[in-house]
Specification:
alpha/beta; seven-stranded mixed beta sheet; five-stranded parallel beta sheet; 6 helices
Length: 313
């Protein structure tokens, strides 16, 4: 039995483990893949406060090492189901069932991918899924962004302030995002919109050098020379196992406020898996700290209530 069970060993989950251990609680972190989450595959991190530059792998390793050195157990097991109600929470994996007095869900979200040739090959070498994370690497260069929702529009406007030219590639003939964002984007002289267009292939030798585009109306294929391509076609949270037990929004994100407390006492949610406006490493670590703080307070209350009952008896 652990004081705190954490699902996910990304920045949110590992930060929760660090804080929970510093509060003196026993902690187990369950992770199906590798520690660090998406940041582990990021070539460089330059937007985390007080760290001018660090590789994503080093950042992830530092988090993991700090959590383990403090006494957190990180178990590489995939969570298949979870029991949230009751005084004891549990997470069942392929290796067995782990129990805890509190549970922090920090399983993250996966970036939706284009699925075209070259995407996997050039991930981290010109293909990015976070404009605010990696945009500065393409200052004064020509780039493309794929998508038509609010994230794509916001990212295009952000990149337009850094890059010489931004090509926005959208499969439809109109945007799905906020009309105000659409208007602002269309007024930018260095943004060119390619409607009814899909990315057929990402081109390059050792890094991205261009895109092969497919006009969905004319069936014409053209080549667009760019140094970077940002994929902004959405995130895919994997919260199906919590459906019915916890509130999910229309996109599948877990609903919780800035305290990270869910509707079930003792169950908290942190990082990209919860509904929020900004998904960055710094907001994930912030969530992890808040979730651990909430879990610690919950455990302290349980201890006090137990002591009060013993005193009354």
């Amino acid at each position: 039995m652990y004081d705190v069970l954490v699902i996910g060993a990304g920045p949110a989950g590992l930060t929760a483990a660090i804080y929970a251990r510093r509060y003196g609680h026993t902690v187990a972190v369950l992770e199906r893949l590798i520690y660090g989450g998406q940041v582990a595959n990021t070539p460089d991190v330059e937007n985390y406060p007080a760290i001018a530059r660090i590789t994503g792998a080093d950042f992830a390793t530092n988090l993991y090492t700090q959590a383990v050195d403090l006494g957190a157990q990180v178990l590489f097991e995939e969570v298949l189901s979870a029991t949230l109600e009751g005084e004891v929470k549990s997470a069942t994996t392929s290796s067995g069932t782990h129990r805890g007095r509190t549970l922090i869900i920090a399983n993250g979200a996966q970036r939706r991918k284009l699925g075209c040739p070259g995407e996997e090959r050039f991930a981290g070498r010109g293909v990015s899924y976070c404009a605010t994370c990696d945009g500065a690497f393409y200052r004064d260069q020509e780039v493309a962004i794929v998508g038509g929702g609010n994230t794509a529009l916001e990212d295009a406007l952000f990149l337009a302030n850094l890059c010489s030219k931004v090509h926005l590639i959208h499969r439809r003939n109109q945007f799905r995002g906020n009309p105000i964002l659409s208007q602002a984007l269309l007024q930018k002289e260095n943004i060119q919109v390619h409607y009814d267009t899909a990315v057929d292939r990402i081109l390059g030798e050792t890094a991205v050098q261009g895109l092969e585009l497919w006009d969905l109306k004319t069936q014409e294929r053209t080549t667009l020379p760019v140094r970077g391509v940002f994929v902004a076609i959405g995130l895919a949270p994997e919260n199906q196992m919590f459906q019915g037990a916890l509130s999910l929004d229309e996109a599948g994100y877990l609903v919780a406020d800035e305290s990270c407390q869910t509707s079930i006492p003792g169950v908290f949610v942190a990082g990209d898996t919860r509904r929020k406006a900004l998904r960055q490493i710094v907001t994930a670590t912030s969530d992890g700290a808040m979730a651990a703080f909430g879990a610690s307070n919950f455990l302290n209350q349980l201890q006090f209530q137990g002591y009060a009952r013993e005193t009354m008896e």
